[in-house]
Structures are given as C-alpha cells and as structure tokens.
Amino acid sequence: MLNCSSRVSADDNPLKTRIYLDHAATTRLHPKALDAMWPHLEDEFGNPSGMYGLGKEAARAIERARSSVADALGCRAQEVVFTGPGTESINAAIKGVAFAEQFAGLGNHVVTSRIEHHAVLHSCDYLAKFGFETTFVPVDRFGMVDPDVVAEAITDRTVLVSVMLANNEVGTVEPLADITEAVQRRAKSFRRRIALHTDAVQSANSLELDVKRLGVDLLSLSAHKFGGPKGAGVLYIRRGTPFLEQLSGGGQERQRRAGTEDVAGIVGTAAALCEAQANHEHYSKACRQLSRHLAEGVLHSVPAAKLSGHPEQRLPNNVHFSFEGAQSDAMLEALDELGIAASAGSACTSATWEPSHVLTAMGMPLSRAAGVLRLTCGPENTAEEIDQVLSILPRVVSESRAKARSGLSAK
Ligand SMILES: Cc1ncc(COP(=O)(O)O)c(C=O)c1O
Given this model, what pLDDT does residue 354 score? Predict the structure, then answer.
C-alpha cells in the first residue's frame, strides 16, 4: 500500500515496476514487425540492387512492403517512398517540393503553423537561406489551426502548405480535410494547385490515414511511433507532385531517396503500419478510457491543474496538464524515481529554459508553461497503472510547487 504522506524518494519505489506513459515519444516494437524483420537481419541480407537471387528477394520484400503501406494509406504503391525517420520524411517533403517549385520559377513562399514539430519549423528556416519566406499561422488557445486563416496566408508565390495532423505535445487533432479544401479553393483563385503536406507522425495509431479523404499531396510517418523500428519512415507523394530528391546517389526509391534500402526497417514499418491502421478504432477506445480516467482523476485531486489542448478533438492517448507554480523537470525526475516514464512534451534544447513554442503559440502563461506534464498511454497500460499514477501525482506536484516557492524565496 502506497504511503502518500511520505516524501517521494528513490530508495522507496512503491511501484517496483515501470509504468511507461510516453508513447508519443516512442513505442515498443510490435511482435509482427519483429517477425517480419528477423529474416532480413539474418539470412536474407542481400542488397536489393543485386542481380542475383538474394538481392532480388530483398527487392521483392521491399515491393511487398510498399504495396502494404499503399493499401494502408489508400494510395498507389509508386506513391510510397521509404525514408529514414519522420524527420527525414518531413525534410524531404518540404525541401523537395519547395526547391522543385522554385526551380520551375513558380514561387518562394511556404505556409505552416506555429505549433509544428521542429522538423517542419527548422526546414522552413533552412529554406530562408535560399530566398524563401514562410508565414507561420497562429492557433487558438486549444492549439487549433483555422482553415480560413491558412487560406488567407496564401499568395500568388505560395508553393507549399504544411500543417500537422495531430500535435505531439498537447494532442490537438487539426481539421486537415477542411484545411486542404480551403487551401485548394484559394489556390484556384490564383489558377493553380498548391501542394499540401501533413506531418502525421503522431497519428497512425489512432486516426485513419486515408490520403484521399485527407486531401493531402504529401504525408510523413515515423515507424517507431506506431510499433515499427526506430530510424525508418514513410513519405507519401501524390503522383504529379513537383519534387526534387534531397538524397542523390544510386537512384533508389525511383530517384526520390537514394541509398541502399534498410530492408529490415522497411518490412518492419509496413507490418507495424498495417497493424496500427487495422486496429486504430480498438486502440482509440482503449486509450481514451485510460486517458479520461487519468484526466478526471488529476483534475479532481490536484489543485489548479488544467488540461491543455482541445477538449474533444484530441489524440485519444494524450493527456497534457499544466500545474501553475510547479516545474516540469522536478516533476519528471520525481516520477522517474518512482518508475513512471512521462514527458514535458518538448525537449529542452538550451541551457537557459525556454517555454515550448507550442504552448506559447496557444497563449499559455509562462507560470503554467514551466510546469507541464504529458502522459501518453498505449494499449498495454492498465487501469491499475493509472490508479497508481493518480495516487502519486498530487504529492509530486505539491512537492515541486513547494520546491519552486522555496527557490524563489531564497533569491
Ligand atoms: C509530430 C512529430 N513530427 C516529427 C517528429 C520527428 O520524428 P523522428 O524523431 O522519428 O524523426 C516527431 C517526433 O517526436 C513528432 O512527434
């Protein structure tokens, strides 16, 4: 029985086990992905470009994987490109379209949102070195992008719009189909089509990724977020989309991504994606129950706790709280000592603390943005685990608040 009145301490881990609540960061490899990968890590080691049996079999395994991914996304096999992780897929999408359009003299303007992952934001910064301008559209307090605001940002020089399908920090799911419709309506007024990319890295477990329904031209995925291997990803490129490859070399992936293919990674990605898309409803239902239980419990037991992100349009496994007066680092350390893996949602990249750009864009005050926790469930989590977290969290937050107060008064 957990003694909630005792101080949180590493020597007295009452859980004895680990509770993993950071599925937005990465997931366990799905057994079917591992099964699919094994042969290519052992006997089936041929180079897919080889002109002999071993190589041809590897090439066939890649093409089978490509067809499975195409079925899962509702597109043609030729529209699927296997890449390195999500970051590479996103870089390829943004730079690939932007440079192709610039080369054709069609423009130098990109539109994206202020809450994108750094893979998108820094790709846009990179383009600035080559004469591109980017408009970063704002979001509301729930992290929601307004389709009309995206459309209004488009000019006759716009070549690409990139808006994420679901936010990795606060879990808000964006109205992508409405955004694509508004963008193409506006593009028509300039008598052209504008390529639309979506970062769907957080979405494959819980949302249907039908590229036609979403209306997107490019879509990025990262395998390790949905039970696939780390370091592997997918880029969907609709046929006819202008695209300049960002990795030049041996011409693999139909000239769109050169380099000897990661055969095991590719077959693992395909197996995991098929599982994720086939089970997304079941996954969503199971995770939603756990997250609701967690959210209700925390809002009830922790004074001045607030749930961030959209109340309904959110990823079913994401719960993101802000606790005025607490500090994320202190809470994460205390949870880790107790065997609970959680996150603040964004990594601190500099010695001086800066609030997450997502929370800032949502207008969250600094005093709240400094004390946030992101808890992301997976299907292997149990209601008992959530109860254990609920029995610990109020004390973790109050200790962090007390520590922050004493630090302030010592100054
Ligand atoms: C929304 C989003 N986009 C892109 C990425 C980058 O993916 P990776 O780190 O697998 O390259 C992440 C990773 O957390 C993400 O959450």
Answer: 84
